[in-house]
Write a structure and sequence with these properties.
Radius of gyration: 20 Å
Number of strands: 10
Strand content: 15-25%
InterPro entries: ClpP/crotonase-like_dom_sf, Ech1-like, Enoyl-CoA_hydra/iso, Enoyl-CoA_hydra_C
Pathway: Mycotoxin biosynthesis; Lipid metabolism; fatty acid beta-oxidation
Keywords: Acetylation, Fatty acid metabolism, Isomerase, Lipid metabolism, Peroxisome, Virulence
Organism: Lepidopterella palustris CBS 459.81
Largest sheet: 6 strands, mixed
Protein name: ClpP/crotonase
CATH class of the largest domain: Alpha Beta
CATH superfamily of the largest domain: 2-enoyl-CoA Hydratase, Chain A, domain 1
Length: about 280
């Protein structure tokens, strides 16, 4: 199956049954993103979302130095880069072209959130800018103790526009802290990220973190894929709405999904003290 997921800047592997491992692979540039990379990551996660052989995904960065340093600013600022080249001199037309481009970039990163399968992001080393955009679109974030986070965009003269400013306030409990890190672009540690709830766990090294991410993915993949898909869908829907809206949506969703044979299989496996098996989704 791996040959179906061949991309220049990503390694896609399948380390255990029903688990995919997506590795950002541009370590010589601290895994910084150029345009083809964010287009490809969208393609990868869209395919994994509908791949019946996948039930959980782990996202990591290659090398020891960085998960990703964010957008490759030098490439984006070049004469033919994403920031400079709109093809228009008229301000309104140039603004409209940039707006379309930003929305396209946003949609690519949102694909991690829209993916039907649970996504675990494992961060290490430098995790700046786009690292926050991507990890906040994932379902679970864990990291190594050496991870250094920063919402870096104000240092390059712009407001973060790919998702952090919209998702970070919903991921942690303090708007004061969110404004602190977003307005100052200061670097904060894994310990601080754990304290505010940005990450679920901190482990000693990158290797340990990746191992734990794969272990968790394996555990999730052992559950009913109907159940994990529904849980992710309902949690994401309910996050931005009232409890009443969430309850109504859950009722409608489960009116169909609770009819799955997976419910009977899961219950019987508990009674019979055996590991359940579920059909591909």
């Amino acid at each position: 199956m791996a040959h179906q997921y061949e991309y220049e800047y990503f390694n896609v592997s399948f380390p255990q049954e029903y688990v995919a491992h997506v590795e950002i692979n541009r370590p010589e540039k601290l895994n910084a993103f150029i345009e083809v990379m964010w287009l490809n990551i969208s393609q990868i996660f869209r395919r994994l979302s509908h791949d019946p052989s996948i039930r959980a995904i782990v996202l990591t960065g290659a090398g020891d130095r960085a998960f990703t340093a964010g957008l490759d600013v030098k490439a984006a600022s070049s004469p033919d880069g994403t920031i400079s080249s709109t093809g228009f001199s008229d301000p309104a037309r140039k603004a409209n072209a940039l707006r379309r481009h930003i929305i396209e970039f946003q949609d690519c990163i949102t694909m991690l959130e829209a993916c039907e399968k649970p996504v675990i992001c494992v961060l290490h080393g430098i995790a700046y800018g786009l690292a926050l955009d991507m990890s906040l679109a994932c379902d679970i974030r864990i990291c190594a103790s050496n991870t250094q986070f920063s919402v870096k965009e104000v240092d390059i003269g712009l407001a973060a526009d790919i998702g952090t400013l919209s998702r970070l306030p919903k991921a942690v409990g303090s708007m004061a802290w969110v404004k602190d890190v977003c307005l100052s672009a200061r670097v904060f540690t894994a310990e601080e990220a754990l304290r505010v709830g940005l990450v679920a766990h901190v482990y000693g090294s990158k290797a340990e973190s990746v191992g734990e991410g794969l272990r968790l993915a394996g555990l999730i993949a052992s559950k009913s894929p109907v159940a994990t898909m529904g849980t992710k869908e309902i949690l994401n829907f309910s996050r931005d709405r009232t409890v009443e809206d969430g309850l109504r949506y859950t009722a409608i969703w489960n009116a169909a999904m609770v009819q799955t044979r997976d419910v009977k299989d899961a219950m019987l496996s508990g009674i019979q003290k055996r590991k359940p098996t579920f059909e591909k989704l």
